[in-house]
Write a structure and sequence with these properties.
- Two copies of one chain form a homodimer.
- By secondary structure, chain A is mainly alpha-helical.
- Chain A has three domains: about 25-150, Alpha Horseshoe (MgtE N-terminal fold), CATH 1.25.60; about 165-270, CBS-domain (Roll); about 295-470, Tetracycline Repressor, domain 2 (Orthogonal Bundle), CATH 1.10.357.
- Helix content of chain A is about 60%, strand content about 5%.
- Chain A is built from 21 helices and six strands.
- Chain A has helices spanning about 25-40, 45-50, 55-65, 70-75, 80-90, 95-100, 105-110, 115-125, 130-140, 155-160, 175-180, 210-215, 235-245, 265-285, 295-320, 325-330, 335-360, 370-400, 405-435, 440-465, 465-470; strands at about 165-170, 190-195, 200-205, 230, 250-255, 260-265.
- In chain A, the strands form two sheets. A three-stranded mixed beta sheet of chain A has the order 1-2-3.
- In chain A, helix 15 packs parallel to helix 20 (about 440-465) and helix 17 packs antiparallel against helix 20.
- Chains A and B meet through helix 1, helix 3, helix 6, helix 11 and helix 12 of A and helix 1, helix 3, helix 6, helix 11 and helix 12 of B.
Chain lengths: ~475, ~475
């Protein structure tokens, strides 16, 4: 709350340094974070801040985001609003989002109300959209550009910045340079300026390199190159990230009703890519949206529904076993082998699933026929099943000296690995076909299949061949 | 093999187009890929190429990478070496790597021998390092710069390009522009040029924006800003990606013995980030390094060892169950409930594991004490365990009308969810502490714990309380 309360620590710094400090290693950041935590625990906030103030703002932010909430708030109280804003501006959106979640909306709006609105807006855009909206609503002096925060979440409109350079086709070198100069420090983030046609629509781009090398008499259109991609305000963030990644682009112009209204810069897309990959990884495990050190209530809300759904599927597996109660009563040792066939199927199915989900997300399966992938994974399942089946058979003979059991186990293993491969590939491919995110619920569906079929195959074959076993 | 064989299809194009085609949607790419596949199947390679030749090279490459091997080779035969090279140059490294794996080393070296060595080198650097080395060895006219390919894999030295601009501190505007101009088309990829001190070491950078806006009398040192990060040739690719991500950098200068020898550009790092995230996701499932449509032998080599290790852990679980054979003989229905407690623990443990592994990879846990995370996950385990324990107890009463069984199940569930949370967080945190990639083997270790303890708790409590159950 930056020292507005009487009796709080004095603000030690007023202006952030003019130049950014050099990078340090993650280990070094960790060591400083520990020392800072000790100093704060000892009540010495001022000394803690002395440790931080000469670091790069991205490192200061990373350390603040990792501290317990009370410690980071204690430090914020002795940082000036300018320094807090400068720190957010220089963090990447993923880390800024984490830090933003630690700070109260009141603290953030108090800070941003006291700084240059241009800087405040850049800092706001580093935060996740909802949080930024909440902070913007609390500002006493609303920021003119903050209407961008009301764009549909997860679209180019919400990711873009309106601070771009656009000139007419006949603009000369001086005009282009003046337009770029007018952007002040925001110009440093641009790699292109845009060339508009007579209707005001973007028709080309001039790279900063071409601008630097242009002869004195050059016009914008003479040194422009064509635009590879133009997105609209409602293009999804995922599509923007795909365009950047696939076509090696550095920035994307954004149009609304044909007019150029903004530009999506790489740092905004870095956030999308990292968040998207994280969400995808977490979706396979059904923890999407959680943070390892986030609020516990969110973790419960995220995980408990999936754990409960999974409970239903384990009871489906239990019911399968119960069908064979009489067979189990005849040979109790069968129970010991229950986790073997089902467990191997679960692991095999998850291997296939993860591979396919990731390939779909990277657009690697475009034009690859689903049938080819299914046959590939089914074949792998059979090959793995033969090897694992032979292995379990040998172990069963050594351990239980029971050739019948060995045969049953081996066959069940072969069958379940085939099912694991087919289902592990089939479920995500089917989900993609019907337009559902392939990562959602896939793991639960796949392990349900491998559990149920694992028990069904093992106990079913055992029942049919019970005379060989006892 | 680009038409060197008598009787092959004639080469239709000789030079790639001067301007890149605009972006198209992934659905559109998919449709064209299907049509191309049909045309090739009908033996009409020339018509297939007509469909492709007006697309952006990144799209041509994506489609070629998705075709069956024989089809992509058929198309390659009617593309000129210039076009194949141009295509590789404009693909991102992830997709180029996929395509490169489809083409034979002979085809690639044949193609690259016939084009401008500058282009050949850029195309080579798009390929995975090993493949690029193999192709470079086969070239009849070795490329001077190709010594870069002999750098240690997965380091800045292997990722960098030597094509950079460096000037002395007192260089004037004309000198800087001339140096940039000399780079030809490679200059388009740069956002900074470097300023060297008297010893030839990099001491600052000039952005293209500053260069474009510089007054005529400016010197390099006057418009330079300090370097945030300088890496050495043996800095790891992961550290380079972290520096870029964390500090929002666009390019990294690379030094060797103090001399500036190269620059790591964003497209090279995009490859590292995507590959790194993919590998991390795949490591949790133990399929790291595979491609969904890659060679089957690689898939077997990758998965089978893990499946075999996992088999050992399922037999550990089996041995645990076998310890309680007499208890199971007294009440066979216990066997039906075996997958319930163990399965829930496995899911819960994997949820925690995934969350922690990802947070570690993103550097989110720097300065966060391991104890705090362990307590958090253990607490969540207890909360989830109480809910799930009550639920299984209720189901057991309804299904089996056995209050003793309900009690045993509920207690075992509570205990195993606590173990799942503790182990799910503890294993990756411990692995990080001892310097092992937390994703490796974590899932196998965690599910082994939850399986063995799930059976041990459930059957152990049942044995102790057997009089309540029957």
């Amino acid at each position: 709350m930056s020292g507005q309360e009487p009796g709080s620590e004095p603000i030690i710094d007023s202006q952030p340094p003019a130049e950014l400090a050099p990078a340090i290693s993650l280990e070094e950041v960790g060591r400083i974070a520990e020392r800072v935590q000790e100093l704060i625990a000892a009540g010495n906030q001022a000394a803690a801040w002395q440790r931080l103030r000469h670091l790069h703002p991205a490192d200061v932010g990373l350390i603040l985001a990792g501290l317990p909430r009370t410690s980071s708030e204690a430090l914020l109280e002795i940082m000036s609003p300018q320094t807090v804003t400068w720190m957010l501006q220089h963090m990447n959106p993923v880390e800024a989002g984490r830090l933003g979640a630690r700070l109260s909306i009141q603290s953030l709006s108090f800070v941003l109300d006291q700084v240059n609105p241009r800087h405040a807006m850049t800092a706001l855009q580093r935060l996740p959209l909802r949080r930024a909206q909440q902070v913007a609503e609390q500002l006493e002096q609303p920021i003119a550009e903050s209407e961008i925060l009301n764009q549909e979440p997860n679209t180019a409109g919400a990711l873009m910045t309106p601070r771009l350079v656009a000139v007419n086709a006949d603009a000369g070198l001086d005009e282009m340079r003046a337009a770029l100069e007018a952007l002040q420090e925001d110009r440093d983030r641009l790699t292109y300026l845009y060339v508009l046609n007579a209707e005001g629509q973007p028709e080309g781009q001039v790279s900063m390199v071409n601008l630097a090398l242009a002869p004195a008499a050059a016009t914008a259109s003479a040194i422009a190159s064509p635009l590879t991609a133009v997105v609209s305000v409602d293009t999804s963030a995922q599509e923007c990230a795909r365009l950047r990644r696939h076509y090696n682009l550095t920035q994307l112009p954004v149009v609304e009703d044909g007019d150029l209204v903004g530009v999506v810069l790489p740092d905004a897309l870095l956030g999308v890519t990292v968040e998207e990959d994280t969400r995808q990884m977490q979706r396979i495990a059904n923890v999407a949206g959680e943070r390892a050190d986030g609020p516990m209530a969110l973790s419960i809300r995220t995980r408990l529904p999936w754990l409960t759904i999974n409970l239903a599927t384990t009871f489906l597996a239990a019911a399968t076993i119960a069908l064979f109660e009489s067979t189990l009563a005849q040979l109790v040792v069968l129970a010991a082998f229950l986790p073997v066939v089902a467990g191997q199927g679960g692991i095999g199915g998850t291997q296939t699933l993860t591979l396919i989900v990731r390939a779909i997300a990277l657009g690697e399966l475009v034009g690859v026929r689903a049938k080819r992938l299914l046959i590939r994974e089914a074949t792998l399942g059979v090959i793995h099943g033969i090897w694992l089946g032979l292995l379990v058979a040998v172990i069963a003979i050594i351990w239980q000296d029971n050739y019948g059991l060995a045969l049953v186990l081996g066959l069940a293993m072969l069958g379940n690995m085939l099912i694991a491969g087919t289902v592990g590939a089939g479920v995500p491919l089917l989900m993609r076909r019907v337009g559902i995110d392939p990562a959602v619920a896939s793991a639960v569906v796949v392990t349900t299949f491998t559990d149920v079929f694992g028990f069904l195959l093992f106990l079913g074959i055992a029942q049919a061949a019970i005379s060989l076993l006892i």
